[in-house]
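Troubleshooting log. The previous run stalled partway through. Resubmitting the same two chains, unchanged.
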Amino acid sequence: MSLQYLKDAAASGDTEALIRYVRLHLGDGDEAKGRKEIDKAWIEALKPLLDLPPADREFIHETLTMKDLATLAHLFFDLHFYLVKQSGEWIHDGNL
Amino acid sequence: MTGTSSDREQLRPGLWATVNERYPGSMITKPDLVPLARLEKSLAQTRLTFVSTAGVQPKGTLPFDVVHPVGDYSFRRVPSTAEPADLEIHQLKYPTDGANRDLNVIFPIERLRELAAEGVVGGLTPDFFSFIGYNMDPERLERTLAEEIAAAVAADGAEAALLAPA
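Second attempt completed without errors. Output:
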């Protein structure tokens, strides 16, 4: 998908086209894998919080308050890949 | 820079159709053709550079941005004298398993040094050039990354470039 295709989809509210692209990106070109990868990231985000360990909420608050939206969105993608890697089931292992 | 077969022939004419079939909405349309330049002297007298989309970079440099959904439009200089152990790959979109065992399969830095030592090529530029091939904005790719690499390659005194997509 071209960047213009994605911009047109965002402008027209074609969310299906947008999320399909995200799944392809996260699944290395495989939409079904990408869907699973999104689920994996959320599961890995949930697990460390179940015992209510202390978290640096000041850091989180400051980051969300001080940083621009592009940086935060970029961080969201970074966190996705980071959390997926934590799962131990890493599809981006050089064996596409 | 060198030509290969015919200057009037696309090297992979079905490529864009294949990409667009797999990724509806179209990837890139590239109907125009920039002819490759022909060598003006023998390869043995020619200083060669290497340009790769393999995402190879010196250890300790800022990793390529492999998570950005629209791509990374930066490049890294890789000293042509570098040892494979001093380099690493940051790229998710091609199989890196073999390359991590022997970098030369994707980034033949030692093989090129051998060719230069044997006199097959006239020499190597001080640096090679590396970027990642996952870039969704072809216009930006052409106007920034490609232009910047072309300028750097020329400044390095390259007389021919080996281009290797990962």
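Takeaways: Chain B touches chain A at residues 22-28, 66-70, 92-100, 136-138 (CB under 8 Å). The longest strand of chain B covers residues 47-52.
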